[in-house]
Amino acid sequence: MAKRRREKDEEEDKPFKLPKFDEEAFLKRERRNIKTTFFSFLFGGFVALICFGFWALMGSNDYRWWLVLLVGIFTASFLKAIFLRLKIDLNDFGRKNWFGSYAIYFVTWLIVLIVLVNPPFYDDEAPRIELAVLPDMQEVGGTVYIVAKITDNSGIQKGDIAFTLDSNTVSSESFDYTDNVLRYTYDSPQNLTGDETHSFKISVTDSAGHTSEVEDTFTFSNDTIYLALPSEGDTLKAASDIKFGVKTSVWRVFYTVNDGQEINATQQTDRKDFYTTSPEYRGWIAGENITVNVSAVVAYNFENYFLRDEDGNLVVDKNGNAISYWFVNYINDTSTYVFDVADESTIGQNDEIPGVSTLKPRVVSAPGFETLVFLISLVAVVLIFKYRKKDRRN
């Protein structure tokens, strides 16, 4: 036991000697690492140019991104052959070194390819037009809003838009194009005796010569909103059903009694074009002749289109969320309905006015190159920490 203690004390008394630094081996290894980094970068850019050629040749093929991605991944296997061809010493080239070379190659390939397949170098995407007609059937005397969100990766100017209505060209001064949205208002012709339909076409050509077109129609009619039940002049009781028909898709239907408060009508579940109500709601008056005026609301929201202030900044709610911008128009029935209301105590006693469905904005997050880059970065961080932890243990 004492002998072991003496041997231990002698070992502790020995001075610590730093290992000899091999400067020549260090410089050789660093030169090798610089060469592999440089040629990995060059090879990534070269393969990106080749993949860009494939991208352009495949045109609008739905699988071209995945095919180009496979080319980029499998071509990475040539890195080792290139290093050997350049007579780079790979004897102590470990897994960490290979990971670094492949990471530099792939990130370079991805960044260069993204730059090449987008303007100003390349553009093979036609403009996208999202159209809304509010409403597509309007009462005589109302207005129709034509709105179209026009997007393109090279940008669209007002002069790139051709707008025709009933085969007549609409001058650019007659419509507005702000924040990628075209806005046009058409006022109803007066004194129509029947339905009148108008057709229009919006054509957009980008800087690369790609063209997109949309066509649609809208109609003016005196019967866009009509009374389906009961017959005008009938005596209404508290339990009587009143049914309004609407010939176009709307968000909300409401009416006023003797120009009083607005009362929402309820959409039928089996017939979406019918909205019902009854004299039980607050505003109806028992034992009197009642005048009813009906209106409807149409609303539309483009994908990821938000409200902005005068300076162009997003307007947010109290939780910091951007507020969606809604295009809204009204359909006002040109007819006024007169009913004789029975003298019943339950008429006009219901204070619970029916509600309407909440408008749901369309906020879409589409995965793309950003998602791929994020996943690659996440994997890279995990592997770097893994190798650092291993080096500490060693």
Write up what this structure looks like:
The chain is α+β, with helices and mostly antiparallel strands. It has 3 domains: 24-122, no CATH class; 128-221, Immunoglobulin-like (Sandwich), CATH 2.60.40.10; 225-310 and 331-341, Immunoglobulin-like (Sandwich), CATH 2.60.40.10. Helices cover 29% and strands 27% of the residues. It has 6 helices and 19 strands. It has helices at 2-13, 23-58, 64-75, 78-85, 95-116, 369-393, and strands at 128-134, 137-139, 143-151, 161-165, 168-170, 176-178, 181-187, 196-205, 211-221, 225-229, 235-236, 242-246, 252-257, 262-264, 266-267, 274-277, 289-300, 327-332, 337-341. Strands 11, 13, 14, 17, 18 and 19 form a 6-stranded mixed β-sheet that branches. A 5-stranded mixed β-sheet has the order 2-9-8-4-5, with no helix packed on it. A 4-stranded antiparallel β-sheet has the order 1-3-7-6, with no helix packed on it. A hairpin with a 4-residue loop joins strand 13 (252-257) and strand 14 (262-264). It is elongated, with a radius of gyration of 36 Å. The two termini are 32 Å apart.
